[in-house]
Design goal:
The protein is an alpha/beta fold. The protein is built from 29 helices and 13 strands. About 60% of the residues lie in helices and about 10% in strands. The strands form four sheets. The chain has a seven-stranded mixed sheet with strand order 4-5-6-3-7-8-10, sandwiched between helices. The chain has a two-stranded antiparallel sheet with strand order 1-2. The chain has a two-stranded antiparallel ribbon with strand order 9-11.
Length: about 725
């Protein structure tokens, strides 16, 4: 089996995603499954971890597409969002269902976890009601064996009437059986099946509607399945069908009369809209139980004791929270220690390359002002952003992805679920908050996993209360200079990590406080319940972790930050080099803001640096040094000792450093984050609220601390 991977173009319609085939014979395969069943591992193994990622039409749910070849045939693999059901409760379920209905895949692979096959068969049966060309892939068979679980795929295949194969997703040697089954299934003609028999009243009601749904069959939608959804009053599906051509059959008087008659008949049997879905779900569960009756065998195995013991430690009431804090300190220490030398080396490389660019401009005889604007302005700012952001992100994001791969992040959400519930929010917000440590924009995007619009908005508005990777350089520098010592040894970096952890805990505390405040004022509502599955602890896939963290997160975030740093470089250079009355605009603005900044324990230079750092927080400290040194370009501050001397000579005290740290924690998000907020909310009002909330919190904290200090004559 030869594996290749290419980006696939997509054409968006209101309800469907049309795959642009490079050849008419290309086959489109949908990959479905519950979360944490190894679906992404199989996708990466088949496509070589090189896929095209985008958004589903009209949705904020990401999709991934890749290609692989088998026996000369090209297959386009579409990775559907992980979902437990196709009875749409969330955007993920709606996207998966709509693609199976309107995307016309040639086959569907449903990946199941061998350790909990009975529960996963719920999705298999629902998928079979939509498509007959289904392949069941029982994955993680090695983990099931360690737990004493043995499956009989031949017996299960005989009962379902579709291919059933077993795989170990990370072992490519187990995939040929799957690709062969997919190739054969994709060649079969479509047919409508009824894998589950529902209670007699429901079957009778369905039979009343099927004669009027023949046009649905022409659109390759199972009339029986569509009848069930109409009886269920699934508005999202009917809207999706109405937006397609030839959907007038839904409005025919005959169908509407039959639908009214069917609902009346169900009501006579005591099956109303509230209980209809419950009866459907109960029938699916019973059918899954029957299928697994003698196809899955269990025996008690001591290997499960390891996971139980770890969960007692990592999710226990007494040890769970201290373990989280210690792990955070360790991750920050690794990031601080590991980023020091690469950051310095990258800075020397990029700023050294500036000399080559300057010589090139001289050879081209470019005007001096153009050289200074592009090299001293734009290039130096971009070089600062890259040299400061890249090393910490290249360390932090893989570590974060590693925790995700091992299985700890769902346990983090479990630990923080109760505090978020007390704030009338969703426990999934813990995952979005953790993503914000790397980049607040990525954290805002991650809020898509929250189903409730109210709780998703809460998570978006409060994500910037935790410091992102861009704020770490300012926080680390000030902590090292004024609180942890400037020696740079083990004790100094460990102490820096400890104080940085305290700052992060303060940000988490503010997240809880503001979430609760919004929940009882603007965004009132009852917190929703959600199912959180704790996956087994797994050995991480280092190659996959590096690819996902470096390409999907690090370079993506870095590219956006560098893009917004270009106009910032132009603005900073202009303000530092345009003079009026013998003073540059930067100094004039700093003097104008100085009285207000003093109320917060800062000075005008610090405040103007935060304002100019709006495109990228990484350039705040360089702007401060540039203003103090009255230079026209960003300067390299040098050692921590020289930085401390410069700050102290310009009136800095321990109080100034503490207020700057507080304001660095809580101020307006960067431009990239606000653009992401607007993209997710489609609202200028909520984007403004996302900017004002942390800014108001930071100003109030700084003013409160400064006022108390002055009252006590400290």
């Amino acid at each position: 089996m030869g594996l290749t991977s290419h980006s696939t173009g997509t054409k968006a319609m209101d309800t469907e995603l049309t795959i642009q085939k490079q050849h008419p014979d290309d086959r489109v395969i949908a990959l479905a499954g519950n979360p944490n069943v190894g679906k992404s591992t199989i996708f990466n193994s088949l496509t070589g971890m090189k896929q095209h990622t985008g958004n589903w039409p009209g949705k904020t749910v990401a999709n991934a597409q890749g290609r692989y070849t088998d026996h000369g045939q090209t297959f386009i693999l579409v990775d559907l969002p992980g979902t437990y059901s196709l009875m749409a409760h969330s955007a993920e379920e709606e996207v998966a269902r709509n693609f199976l209905c309107f995307g016309h895949p040639d086959a569907v692979v449903v990946v199941c976890d061998a350790s909990c096959l009975e529960r996963n068969l719920n999705l298999v049966l629902q998928t079979m009601e939509i498509s007959s060309r289904v392949v069941v892939c029982i994955n993680l068979i090695d983990e099931a064996r360690r737990k004493g679980i043995r499956t009989d795929p031949e017996r299960l295949s005989e009962r379902l009437g579709i291919p059933v194969v077993t795989t170990v997703g990370r072992d490519r040697r187990s995939l040929p059986t799957l690709t062969e089954a997919v190739r054969k299934a994709a060649a079969l003609p479509p047919a409508f099946t009824a894998p589950v028999l529902y209670p007699a009243p429901i079957e009778e009601a369905v039979s009343l509607l099927i004669p009027f749904l023949s046009q649905a069959g022409e659109r390759q939608i199972n009339p029986r399945w569509l009848a069930l959804r109409l009886l269920e009053a699934d508005d999202s599906l009917t809207e999706a069908i109405r937006s397609c051509p030839d959907s007038d059959f839904l409005e025919t008087p005959e169908l509407q009369d039959a639908l009214c008659q069917a609902r009346t008949m169900l009501a006579e049997y005591g099956i109303g809209p509230e209980t209809f879905r419950d009866r459907i779900t109960a029938s699916l569960i019973r059918r899954a139980e029957e299928l697994c009756a003698d196809a899955v065998h269990y025996r008690q195995d001591p290997c499960t004791f390891r996971d139980w013991k770890l969960d007692r430690l990592l999710t226990g009431r007494r040890i769970g929270y201290p373990a989280m804090i210690l792990l955070l300190v360790f991750l920050l220490w690794l990031t601080i220690t590991g980023a020091n030398y690469p950051s310095q080396a990258l800075s020397e490389l990029l700023f050294g390359f500036q000399e080559i660019l300057s010589r090139l401009f001289c050879l081209l005889r470019a005007p001096a002002w153009l050289h200074d604007l592009l090299i001293s302005g734009v290039y130096r700012v971009v070089a600062w952003v890259v040299s400061v952001m890249l090393p910490p992100m290249a360390i932090f994001f893989p570590l974060f992805t590693l925790l995700e791969d091992v299985g700890y992040l769902p346990r983090l959400a479990y630990n923080l679920d109760r505090p978020f519930q007390c704030c009338h929010a969703c426990g999934k917000q813990a995952l979005c908050m953790a993503m914000g440590f790397g980049c607040n924009a990525a954290g805002v995007t991650g809020c898509r996993i929250i189903d409730s619009p109210r709780e998703r908005l809460l998570a978006i508005l409060t994500n910037s209360f935790v410091p992102c990777n861009g704020r770490f350089p300012t926080l680390i520098a000030l902590i090292a200079i004024f609180f942890a010592g400037i020696g740079g040894g083990f004790c100094s970096t460990l102490l820096s990590a400890f104080f940085l952890t305290l700052a992060i805990l303060l940000g988490i505390g503010m997240t809880f406080a503001v979430t609760w405040l919004l929940s009882v004022t603007w965004l009132r509502g009852v917190p929703s319940a959600f199912t959180l599955e704790l996956p087994p602890y797994r050995k991480p896939q280092i190659g996959s972790v590096l690819v996902r963290s470096v390409f999907d997160r690090t370079l993506f975030v870095l590219g956006r930050a560098a893009a917004v740093a270009v106009p910032a470089g132009v603005l900073i250079w202009c303000m530092a080099n345009i003079h009026t009355g013998g003073t540059n605009l930067l100094s004039l603005c700093a003097s104008f803001l100085d009285p207000f900044a003093r109320l917060m324990g800062l000075d005008g230079v610090i405040l103007i640096a935060f304002l100019l750092g709006f495109p990228a927080n990484e350039i705040v400290m360089p702007i401060i040094f540039m203003a103090y040194l009255t230079q026209g370009t960003l300067t390299e501050p040098g050692s921590l000792a020289s930085m401390k001397h410069l700050l102290l000579s310009n009136g800095w005290t321990l109080h100034t450093a503490l207020c700057t740290i507080l304001f660095s924690l809580f101020h307006w998000p960067c431009s990239t984050t606000l653009l992401t907020v607007h993209k997710e909310t489609k609202s200028l009002r909520w984007t403004a609220v996302a900017a004002l909330l942390p800014t108001a919190a930071g100003m109030l904290l700084c003013m409160l601390y400064t006022g108390i200090r002055r009252l006590l004559f400290l």
